[in-house]
Amino acid sequence: MVPCVLHLENRTREKLLRLILNNLFVIYEKSVALAKLRPLEKLIRTKGFGCPNGREGKWTAPLSKDEDSVEKISLNCGRARKIFANVGTELIEACFPDDAKRRVVLDLVRGYEELMVLYRKREDLTDVEIAKADDLAQETYHRLLTTTAKALRTSTTS
Hints:
This protein is mostly helical.
């Protein structure tokens, strides 16, 4: 079975958002993490969703029963794209206070965004674009599976 590129895009964005927000619970005690999460939820509901007339959308991070982690996030593709386009960098900066770890996650997300732009092109890709997409896909998913996982696991040492 070959998944649709848009489903791949959406599931990956949901996973990235969950990993980013969950880092608050890795580096802070639960009460502090929850206090830092609330303004980020508001940021997502307002600037993240790009609501017209400054209206606030309805969204809160799904928390575990013990409220000590963010559970699986479910968003439509348009909303997931808007979050990363409008406030992705702000979320990463808020959830990764360590500069080195923040750069790792920013690089991962930027590479992923560039890859998705290529994948969404409606016209045929040139040979150069195909090679670039292949390289970006390998690099991005390698980072997602290795470097970011290490950065998140070692966040408790910060």
